[in-house]
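Review form for a predicted model. The reviewer records the input and the model, then writes brief findings.
Reviewer: anonymous (R2)
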Amino acid sequence: MTSKTLLSGGCVLTLGTKTPNFTHADVLIDGDTVTEVGSGIRARDAELVDATDTIVMPGFVDTHRHAWTSLFRNLGEGPWAGAGPMPSGIGEHLQPEDVYAATLIGLLGAAEAGITTVVDWSHDRSDAGFEAAALQAHTDAGVRTVYATHQLDTNREAAHLAGFAGPLTSVAFASVLSSDPGSVAEAWASARRAGMRIHAHAGSHGSETGVIAAAAQQGLLGEDVTLVHPSGLDDADVEAIHRAGASVSLAPSSEMARGMGSPPIQQLIDADIRPGLGIDTERITPGDMFAQMRATISMQHATVFDLKLAGKGGVPHLMGTRDVIRHATVDGARVAGLGRVTGSIEPGKQADLVVLRTDRPNVFPINDPIGAVVWGMDTSNVDWVFVAGQALMRGGVLQADLQRARDLAVAARERVIAASGLAVGVARGDG
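Model under review:
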């Protein structure tokens, strides 16, 4: 079996700094790496993928997801309503096999949506059995992942988790930045000694304004920190993020649905802070990045138009599609700590890319390829998905044992529902 793949004749959006976009071009993959991008590439020993009438672009990067919540997709009302990823107490009923099933179906859904990298925040019960189950699901799904664990007592634990992780998974530390930033100083220092990136919930509500600035004053922020859901920012917080070179992950659909306040998109743009985008929890938000891009750009446009309607002067420019598609790819890779690995299609980078059909009626005729991806496409346009050069999706068909994944997910959901006493399903009398 050849280790080379040639994607031929597509519209190639590299989104790179050294390699331009192409109206028509080829992409050569050798093993797990992009080796050449351009026109007229010849590789007789490569598997040929006809990319005519498609857009070839970097795979999407989901910078924040709780994959263990995937058993309970689309449940945001009644007893399931609330600000957290899940109703209080539901997690205590999960067993390692449930975490495996939830994580597997969540990551397979991500792959089918063209997401090639996921930052997965672990279930709170992070003992060895749960960690091993989640990490096995990461390996079995085949996507590139960052596994963010809440538990970190020693440097040995980081090495222990890395032993469970597959070759496409790195381990990071998941933390919460509270009103007392000093309370996390020791844990963050331990994570840094272990070479782990820090992903921290921070400033997620208006009442937490100033937390990020306080953390910066204590020397906690740095380029190895990703701040998640920072909706309660003031000017000092924004300046602290910018000065420290820290990154920001926004999950716009979830943040609005969960009552965290409006995502601070314009505040970040004004400070030249380019966020990555995330799903957060599929319980109340779509699991694809097409939806997140549209939520982001629509929110920014609404902010601008509100200022104009109020008669304000000096209003910001409208966000363009070329900005938001980068938030979902190359910016997201940087936010995940993988900017040198993935996020753009350039020689030497990992071959994490998607092939999107442009011959479908939801986008045809193509007037602007990037505009078509951002405004018009959805998961039905995803045709091929590659991670580290391996085809996870071929011709619109996910290359996985979906029946097994479905069976495991249904069984796990039934176990947890029975144990928790909560109900799912359409209420009687609903239309």
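Findings: The CA atoms of residues 102 and 108 lie 10 Å apart.
Further findings: The chain has a mean pLDDT of 91.
Recommendation: see findings above.
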